[in-house]
Amino acid sequence: MARIRRSEQTREALIEEGIRQLAAYGYHGTGIKQILDAVRVPKGSFYNYFESKEAFVAEIVRSYSEQGLSQLDDYLGSEKGLGPVEKLKAIYRYILEQHADVGQTQRGCLIGSLAAEIGSSSAICQRALIEAFSGWQQRLTALFKAAQDARQVRCDLSADDMATLFWSAWEGSLMRMKMEGSVRAPEHMIELLLDTVFKR
Amino acid sequence: MARIRRSEQTREALIEEGIRQLAAYGYHGTGIKQILDAVRVPKGSFYNYFESKEAFVAEIVRSYSEQGLSQLDDYLGSEKGLGPVEKLKAIYRYILEQHADVGQTQRGCLIGSLAAEIGSSSAICQRALIEAFSGWQQRLTALFKAAQDARQVRCDLSADDMATLFWSAWEGSLMRMKMEGSVRAPEHMIELLLDTVFKR
Question: Quick check: B194 and B90 in contact, CB under 8 A?
Answer without folding.
Answer: no
